[in-house]
Amino acid sequence: MNALTVLISCPDQVGLVTNITRVLAAHQLNIIAMREFVDEANKSFFTRIACTGNLGDAEKLKEKLLENLPNAAEVNLITQQEKQIAVLVTKEYHCLAEILIKNQFKTLGANVQCVIGNYESLRDFTEKLGIPYFYVDHTNKDKSEFEAEVKAIINRFEVDYLVLAKFMRILSADFVKDYAGKIINIHHSFLPAFIGANPYRQAFERGVKIIGATAHFVTDNLDEGPIITQHTNHVDHNFGVKEMVRAGKEIEKKVLLEALELIFEDRVFVSGNKTIVFK
Asked: Which residues are known to be catalytic?
């Protein structure tokens, strides 16, 4: 028996669940889990269905589903194949290390095809784990030249997603457009406060009591793309700057890996600037 994930988004109307399940049953597919959500404000319907059975003619199944759904419906049929990713880094190692260790022990849910960095700092660690590392220097280059070099490397591989693991370069609108809906970023959740360098020192000096991290899809609006997941931790007067930075890194790792797991398991829909996440 083969596993199949069915993802559907469409305008909402009465009878959608009945129509969908009837088509799946007619194709001898057994539903083992089904989650659905209606965005009442936008009159939109979303569902994720995990099935088992012999898929047979995938195009025929997709066509039949579309026949039983409203106009403008989107249907994706996903067999259980691991996603392929490229990771972009600068100097900080904590998020990259978490990704590569899980990749090494086959628990990431995806395969890391390559790591691309604008410094050499993380080459040795990456290559020790058998992953190719590509250095692209950003100095004395305009953004378009730098990004063209990065894209040339990415395009050598079959990549489903780009993961910005503390990659500290701002990407252009053209670059983001080329990989729309495929770039995941992680940052501290102090934004829009404490912009720029040393955010944890700024937070410490303001006596912040909660620190957190946000994982989101990248859009043209810097750090404002659809949020996938967020977490916070409480801190107090016992935390100095070093302790806050250490706690911040731990929560950044946790949030990024949680977001990646959700994405690699096809549990995230993007609707405008929001997400629907079926955990």
From this structure: 223
The answer to whether 41 touches 272, Cβ cutoff 8 Å, is no
Q: Supply the pTM of this predicted model.
A: 0.93
The superfamily in CATH containing domain 2-78 is: ACT domain (3.30.70.260)
Q: Report the distance separating Cα 188 and Cα 248, nearest Å.
A: 7
What tokens were used for 215?
Answer: 């994982």
**pLDDT per residue as tens digits for the range 35-93:** 999 999 999 999 999 999 988 889 999 999 999 999 999 999 998 789 999 999 999 99
Distance from C-alpha of 123 to C-alpha of 117, rounded to nearest angstrom: 8
**Contact criterion met (CB below 8 Å) for 119 and 135:** yes
Beta strands in the chain (DSSP E): 2-11, 30-39, 44-53, 74-79, 83-89, 110-117, 133-135, 161-164, 183-188, 210-217, 227-234, 268-271, 274-277
83-277: CATH class:
alpha beta
Please tell me what DSSP assigns to residue 170: P
Q: How far apart are CA 123 and CA 249, in angstroms?
A: 20
Residue ranges of domains in the chain: 2-78, 83-277
